[in-house]
Specification:
Largest sheet: 5 strands, parallel
Strand order of the largest sheet: 6-3-2-7-8
Number of strands: 12
CATH architecture of the largest domain: 3-Layer(aba) Sandwich
Shape: globular
Mean pLDDT: 96
Radius of gyration: 23 Å
Distance between the termini: 58 Å
Bound molecules: D-mannonic acid
Number of domains: 2
Oligomer: single chain
Low-confidence stretches: none
CATH superfamily of the largest domain: NAD(P)-binding Rossmann-like Domain
Length: 495
Amino acid sequence: MSGRDRLSEATLRGAKGATLPAYDRRRVTTGVVHLGVGAFHRAHQAVYIDDCLAAGEAGWGIVGASLRSTDTRDALAPQDGLYTLAEQDSSGEKLRVVGSIKELVVAPENPEALVARMAAPTTRIVSLTVTEKAYLRDRGGDLDLAHPDIVHDLAEPQRPRTTHGFIAAALERRRKEGAAPFTVLCCDNLPANGETLRRLILQFAAARGGDLARYVEQEVAFPSTMVDRIVPATTDEDRERISRAIGLADAWPVKTEPFMQWVVEDRFTAGRPRWEKFGVTMVGDVRPFEEMKLRLLNGAHSGIAYLGLLCGRRSVSEAFSDPEIRGFVDRLWAEAIPTLPKGAGLDPQAYVTALARRFANTALVHRTAQIAMDGSQKLPQRILAAARGRLAEGRPAAHLMLVVAAWIACCEARGTPAMPESFTDPLDDRLAAVLVQRGSPEETVRRVFEAAGFGAVTGEAAGPLAGIAARFLGTIRESGARAAIEQAMREEETE
Ligand code: CS2
């Protein structure tokens, strides 16, 4: 990037080859505080809000907060929050500079500053993309009150570390100051994400004591949302290419596909942007959309990631062009589709047809290793919930459970060149203790299910679903992932 001026408010109008914010950023005030200002937020919600700002809704600028790392702030603060969004498909790359993030904060540097921003009366929405693991649920799905960060936040409510601690501290301050609460807008890939977060915040508030739990219960809205856009991690090569294209140095552009979707429950107590004018679907109940997305998109993604890694495929499009993996995904979809809510107006066939096109996008390199992360947090809602539904109806769930077996096999292969170092899981300590013993497939699956709390989702720790996963793990260990894919196909044919 050397030699180029940095992208910023002052240099913006000199950017080449990109669409620029079509509004005066100086007139924009902030109405949203977003927790977890990573690439996904910047390619999704920040873009919808950018459209609203361009249409004159100037009160919805974003304060982007990082709960841990300083990276995003370090990259974007010198750019006045500006960054380039690159939409990639076979027709090439479309660039757009997004201007909706007005301020960046790093929570651990000054927790009070973030609480104050959230508690400011101008803040009407607190949205979040903090990833599955940051919800700090125990094996039964309740708030993990023994988690050190929760213990910390209960002991020191004025200096929170967790999402729960920040939301509780800011709501508590608003309650005391008589300000109306903000709406909490969860944008993570969890089923009933708003309701799930509400339950955890209520449990946190109850543990804190005082009136907060009642206030949250009665006054605060947590609409659920389904968010969708494929956003691979930015590489140094992307930084260089995009900076060259716009003629300005952008330290952290984001790349994505042209497709984007947002379905949001329309329950906002303090107002919201008129998102419906910019392609957002506002609904009464988001659950059917969320389940379809989690089970068909994310479930297939996890399958592609683990089987892809085991077959040496480094990106989604590369794995998806492998006929055996492609066939596997079709059969996985065929298993998952009948588990989706009926009578909710979903069109799963059209959805998977569109998904197949998205996964085949070779212009967008989405690493299988990126999706492989955090399997213990992702598989319950993506795979196990559907498998449980199949089992309850006496139907086979071979392909679903092969995804679980492939995940375990990938975990077992950690430390070998086949598995990238970036492939980690928040339960690594517990999983390592199980995997190091290399028990029989049955023993390993049973102990992994216990360690990850999968029994709470499947209804049993060592029942039929675990048995199917163990069979596939045995095959992968002995004969490799392709043999297991064939076995799943054969099992399905004979059922
Ligand atoms: C992916 C998702 O990394 C993953 O686990 O499955 O991030 C996926 O790309 C998004 O949910 C798409 O909307």
